[in-house]
Amino acid sequence: MRESYDFSKSKKNPYAKRVKKQITIRLDQDTIAYFKAMAEDKGIPYQSLINLYLRDCAGEHRQLKTTWA
């Protein structure tokens, strides 16, 4: 490994806008527990599992079905 590197001719990452964005979201404890248990079975982090689920919903243009008692 080198002691120093020259980045003077480096280019900005063209995919930087596509990286994930950190947000704050409030979820019920039982919802978190559900995804944590499922993530443990699948062997992936629960936040990644939630992201995959939301991406699938958005990709399929699923609409939320709500009924209020």
What are the key terms here?
69 residues, mainly alpha, 2 helices, 41% helix, elongated
Task: Furnish the topology, listing elements before pairings.
Layout: H1 29-42, H2 46-59
Helix pairs in contact: 1-2
Describe this structure in words.
The protein has two helices and no strands. It has helices at 29-42, 46-59. The longest helix has 14 residues, at 29-42. It starts with 28 loop residues before the first helix and ends in a 10-residue tail after the last helix. The model has no long low-confidence stretch (mean pLDDT 91).
Précis, in short:
This protein has helices at residues 29-42, 46-59. With 69 residues, the protein is mainly α.
Summed over residues and divided by their number, the pLDDT gives a mean of 91
Rounded to an integer in angstroms, the radius of gyration calculated over CA atoms is 19 Å
Binned, the helix content reads 40-55%
Total beta strand runs: 0
Low-confidence stretches: none
Shape: elongated
Order of helix and strand elements from N to C terminus: HH
N→C terminal distance: 64 Å
What fraction of residues sit in β-strands? under 5%
Structural class: mainly alpha
* Major sheet: none
- The number of helical elements comes to 2
